[in-house]
Amino acid sequence: MEKAKQPYLVERNPGYFEYQLPISVKMVIDIKGKVPLLRNERDEWELPGGKLELGETPESTVLREVQEELTLEPELLSGVDIVDSWVYEIFPHRHVFIVSYGAEYTGSREPKLSNEHKELGLFDYEDVPGLVMPEPYKKTIAQWQARQQRP
């Protein structure tokens, strides 16, 4: 197996390879019917979140990242739950395993842009399909919205 073509395959035993990826956790946050999204260095909109750090759980990571990236209080996120997961190919040799969460923000603080992204936008759910954004994020946002509309 050629390592340059398979950067996430680690040979554990002769002929036995394991697929290992970095883990990123993201969150769809409903703020009075709007979803905060962040513009990244590739000029794509994305959900707030980040990489899992050693010793963290996925949920504690996403709550920390929401506080860092949007200055929203994690304790005011209601109904935190996993929505979806997938492997995202950022570039041919850069993949990441994504776990997405959803929650409703019950506080009154306005989200603020951190220095980690280029722009912060608050979008209506119906505007998301037209945004420059990876399709799995759009799917996650739609799934979260559908859950919120269930009786």
Number of strands: 9
Low-confidence stretches: none
Q: Using the CA coordinates, give the radius of gyration.
A: 17 Å
Approximate helicity band: 10-25%
- Look at the structure and give the mean pLDDT: 91
Which range does the strand content fall in? 35-45%
Treating each run of at least 4 consecutive H or I residues as one helix, how many helices?
A: 2
Secondary-structure element order, N to C: EEEEEEHEEEH
Question: Given the C-alpha coordinates, what overall shape results?
Answer: globular
Regarding quaternary structure, how should these chains be classified?
single chain
Helix vs. strand class:
alpha+beta
CA(first)-CA(last) distance: 51 Å
Largest sheet: 4 strands, mixed
In spatial order, strands of the major sheet run 6-3-8-7
Question: Which features characterize this protein?
Answer:
single chain, 151 residues, alpha+beta, 4-stranded mixed β-sheet, 3-stranded antiparallel β-sheet, 2 helices, 9 strands, 19% helix, 40% strand
